[in-house]
């Protein structure tokens, strides 16, 4: 059973952890600060309850939510757990709930949020590992199921392609938008169907299934169609559109899923 943020007890409020002003900040009179309300919970710690801990963090120009969390970890609470890597919006590691919306911590400027209080929590629809860090095991499993790679009959599935496969610019543009996915998981966190059906492949995996299915170099539709045209495949999507609303790269997975539905129906009719 997947334990998500909604399944946990309502977090309790704790006292504010005061800011420790660094020597550089001490040079500035009355440094501006913001409050970071961060979800804290360790499922493996016996008797520990979910709670919201408030930290006062010094504000600076260009400060992102990830920067603020790193400041808290370095200066106030080194036990705070969250995931990050590149800090450039490329790796997709720092997905989290920021003021209730799935966002990338490294790309979210605190000044642009328009509030002095920033609430941070783990992504919904994922199991909580600890604090803001979530388990992506099912997410990557669903991605793998759609066979997100080129399949060529002459080589056999999974073997390297040994020759160049030419492609026109028009053929590339049919799928290029969907190659921009960084697998941050925000779309699955926003999807209401993923929340109701843990076996649903999800918008990320289905959009990537379309990306390879429409690629002129691919010959793996027979294998891939068995996965996407299933009870937990593309027709499980009800087009809420929330996945595309939160995508940080403009991939528009909702459109990809709808195009995949059309492709499934078209190829079924063509065989009939």
Describe this structure in words.
It is a single chain. The chain starts with 11 loop residues before the first strand and ends with a helix. The protein has 11 helices and 8 strands. The model is unreliable at 19-30 (pLDDT under 50). The strands form 2 sheets. Strands 1-3-2-6-4-5 form a 6-stranded mixed β-sheet. Strands 7-8 form a two-stranded antiparallel ribbon. It is 32% helix and 14% strand. The chain folds into 2 domains: 5-135, Beta-grasp domain (Ubiquitin-like (UB roll), Roll), CATH 3.10.20; 137-271, Orthogonal Bundle (Fumarate Reductase Iron-sulfur Protein, Chain B, domain 2). Helix 4 (137-145) runs parallel beside helix 8 and helix 8 packs across helix 11 (253-271). The chain is elongated, with a radius of gyration of 22 Å. It is of the alpha/beta class.
Q: Brief description of this entry?
A:
By secondary structure, this protein is of the alpha/beta class. The protein is 32% helix and 14% strand. The protein contains eleven helices and eight strands.
């Amino acid at each position: 059973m997947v334990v998500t943020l909604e399944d946990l007890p309502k977090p309790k409020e704790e006292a504010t952890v005061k800011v420790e002003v660094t020597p550089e900040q001490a040079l500035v009179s009355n440094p501006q600060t913001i409050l970071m309300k961060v979800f804290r919970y360790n499922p493996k710690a016996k008797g520990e309850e979910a709670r919201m801990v408030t930290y006062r963090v010094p504000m600076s120009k260009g400060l992102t939510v990830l920067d603020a969390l790193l400041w808290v970890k370095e200066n106030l609470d080194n036990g705070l757990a969250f995931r990050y890597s590149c800090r450039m919006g490329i790796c997709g590691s720092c997905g989290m709930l920021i003021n209730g919306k799935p966002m990338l911590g490294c790309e979210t400027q605190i000044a642009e949020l328009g509030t002095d209080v920033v609430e941070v929590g783990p992504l919904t629809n994922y199991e909580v590992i600890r604090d803001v860090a979530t388990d992506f095991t099912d997410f990557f499993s669903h991605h793998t199921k759609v066979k997100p790679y080129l399949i060529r009959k002459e080589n056999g599935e999974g073997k390297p392609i040994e020759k160049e496969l030419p492609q026109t610019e028009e053929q590339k543009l049919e799928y290029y938008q969907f190659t921009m996915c960084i697998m941050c998981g925000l779309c699955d966190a926003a999807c209401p169907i993923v929340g109701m059906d843990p076996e649903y492949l999800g918008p990320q995996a289905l959009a990537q299934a379309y990306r390879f299915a429409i690629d002129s170099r691919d010959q793996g539709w027979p294998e891939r169609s068995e996965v996407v045209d299933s009870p937990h495949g593309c027709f499980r999507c009800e087009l809420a559109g929330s996945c595309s609303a939160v995508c940080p790269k403009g991939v528009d997975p909702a459109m990809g899923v709808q195009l995949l539905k059309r492709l499934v129906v078209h190829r079924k009719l063509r065989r009939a």
